[in-house]
Specification:
The protein is mainly α and 374 residues long. It is built from 15 helices and four strands. The chain has a four-stranded mixed beta sheet, covered by helices on one side.
């Protein structure tokens, strides 16, 4: 009971210190509000408002119909250009896509021949270029099939594929980017807040005050973990309810309570990692330089930006020591697919286990650091 009492009051001391740290409080508010909205609405992997040009060397009803079928929600209104001006326009970056209809295009289609439609793409922005080519291919093929059907030409294949998108049927990138940015912000804040608390004690000389008190290094570390973790947990709850649901209009499929329970376990692991990093660094600049590659790696290789299966096997194996991949999988299962505890319990258990490992190592390092300071 004495130990738990020490942990509780040391946590209250953290609240008092954090209350006057306006920079850290501002970072928490910004990372889980403005940053979430900015990334969700500003980062686009799908095609949006792309510049497109049409080279129509056929000038028939079919070529005009295909040009008119290009959807305005993905592309700007097509610009008609001449063939000899295309190379210069692409080099100058005026158009992202160029669609070229060859001469006698409609006649060849109606005669059953297979004329080609040339589609050029500026692959500088590779994600938009790849998605745009897929959009245009689907649009051109679908509209050509409709035209042939109306003309009485049989163009129906014996097998027709039907694609259904689950959990995000409109392919709205805001849904994915918004939730993933919340997860990234939790990773950054949990490491920075706890690590900064340790470094602040050392730089302000208040660590010596703790050394003369009848408290253990474990109590000091746990006090910082629960206090800073609780601040982030409250901010996450408000971010989900106010930013994701109200501002971005992102539907939450699963249980918020279960998501917060998993967030507690993730915060336990990452804050313990933050203390471990703080015991390695000797100053705040050193801690920042050490923390940046850690949480950047955790974000880039956890599944928030690209699927874990798409990275090399060696990196996949190495990343399984990071709690971030389990939290991303846990959050996606609950918030996107409405999964329950029987599905996500394994990820929660692994996060808790990693947290215990990080905490044991961090306390050992913390005890050694305090011994040197004393």
């Amino acid at each position: 009971m004495r130990f738990l009492k020490d942990v509780f009051f040391l946590g209250l001391k953290e609240f008092s210190s954090l209350r006057y740290d306006y920079v850290m409080l501002g970072l928490v508010v910004y990372a889980l509000s403005i940053a979430v909205v900015t990334v969700a609405r500003g980062v686009k992997l799908e095609v949006s408002n792309a510049a497109i040009a049409i080279v129509d060397q056929d000038r028939t009803q079919l070529s005009q119909r295909l040009a008119d079928a290009i959807p305005r929600q993905y592309f700007k209104p097509p610009i008609m250009v001449e063939a000899d001006a295309i190379d210069h326009a692409i080099d100058a970056g005026r158009y992202t896509f160029v669609v070229e209809f060859p001469p006698h295009f409609e006649a060849d289609v109606l005669a059953g021949r297979s004329p080609g439609i040339a589609v050029r793409a500026d692959a500088t922005a590779i994600a938009q270029a790849g998605n745009g080519i897929a959009y245009l291919q689907d649009i051109l093929l679908t509209e050509t099939a409709r035209y042939l059907d109306q003309a009485g030409v049989n163009s129906v294949l014996p097998i027709q594929g039907v694609v259904r998108f689950a959990f995000n049927p409109n392919l709205n990138g805001v849904r994915f980017n918004g939730v993933m940015q919340v997860i990234n912000s939790v990773t950054i804040l949990s490491i920075l807040l706890v690590g900064a608390a340790i470094m602040r004690e050392r730089e302000h000389g208040t660590m010596e005050h703790l050394l003369v008190m009848p408290v253990t290094p474990a109590a000091i570390a746990l006090g910082k973990i629960w206090a800073n973790g609780l601040v982030i947990l409250i901010a996450v709850f408000l971010s989900v309810q106010l930013v994701l649901r109200m501002v971005l209009d992102i539907p939450i499929a699963g249980s918020i309570a279960l998501f917060l329970a998993g967030t507690v376990l993730y915060l336990f692991a990452t804050t313990s990692l933050g203390i471990l990093l703080a015991t390695i660094a000797n100053s705040m600049p050193q801690f920042a330089l050490l923390a940046i590659p850690v949480f950047v790696t955790m974000m880039l290789l956890s599944g928030t930006m690209t699927p874990l299966e798409s990275i090399p096997q060696a990196l996949q194996a190495a990343m399984h020591v990071s709690p971030s991949i389990y939290f991303v999988r846990f959050a996606q299962a609950i918030l996107y697919r409405g999964a329950g505890f029987p599905i996500v319990w394994e990820d929660m258990a692994i996060m808790a286990g990693l947290g215990v490992v990080f905490l044991v190592v961090a306390i050992a390092r913390f005890r050694s650091m305090l011994a040197k300071a004393g």
